[in-house]
């Protein structure tokens, strides 16, 4: 009797199982291809978005640079010690001083920066509370003489943990405006020809003197001086000579009165 071989006893492969295996492998490759496509697509989109953002940033920077160069304003930055670390350039001829003189300086340093008490107080209150400030005017001595007046608006810059990194803002040269404003105030209180107090300031001082005298029960004096034959000077020598005479008399009177006294010109001679 002949023995059966092992080959004849082997179980034939399950066709359905093989079909399921092939389907799973095929699906895995399809999923992999889909994920790779999505990844490549997202990278491509991200690359295009990044390029668009960079282009928008360059356009914005160019626009800002152009506007700053055409404006009388300038941009500045301060560090945590409130010292200027950056000041942008102005358009040619728009400033009366080299703005780099501000670098390394602090607005609270009275040795190099000038400000009236009200402006200095507003700036100090803003920086102590880490708040923004608007339209504060300061002065800086110019190397060639005179004072450079500038007006600043700024806001604080904070780090990720709300620590103060400094301030940044805009500034403008207001030297001419400040000079004109002071000239107008001077003209409203002083005589243009002689430099003496005018009628308005004289009346104000007399009113204060009257109130003070009534309160403290003391007296004061008002002396009125008239120049005899002044019209003859104008008629014979001309108005220029008459003006020079008035200026000379005004200078002599100013040298004679005390600091608490007032010499004024009410008009005419």
Characteristics:
single chain; 269 residues; alpha+beta; 6-stranded antiparallel beta sheet; 47% helix
Detail the topology: elements first, then pairings.
Elements: H1 15-70, E1 73-78, E2 84-87, E3 113-114, H2 117-128, E4 133-141, E5 147-158, E6 164-173, H3 175-189, H4 199-216, H5 230-237, H6 239-256
Antiparallel strand pairs: 1-2, 1-6, 3-4, 4-5, 5-6
Helix pairs in contact: 5-6
Structure, briefly:
The chain is α+β, with helices and mostly antiparallel strands. The chain has 6 helices and 6 strands; from the N terminus they run H-E-E-E-H-E-E-E-H-H-H-H.
Q: Can you give the helix content as a percent range?
A: 40-55%
Biggest sheet character: 6 strands, antiparallel
> Beta-sheet strand percentage?
15-25%
Total number of helical segments?
A: 6
C-alpha Rg, in Å? Answer: 42 Å
- Mean pLDDT reading: 81
| Broad shape | rod-shaped
Helix-strand category: alpha+beta
- Low-confidence segments, given as residue ranges, are none
Protein model, in words:
The protein is of the alpha+beta class and 269 residues long. The chain is rod-shaped, with a radius of gyration of 42 Å. The longest helix is centred in the first third of the chain and has 56 residues, at 15-70. Helix content is 47%, strand content 16%. The termini are far apart. The chain has a six-stranded antiparallel beta sheet.
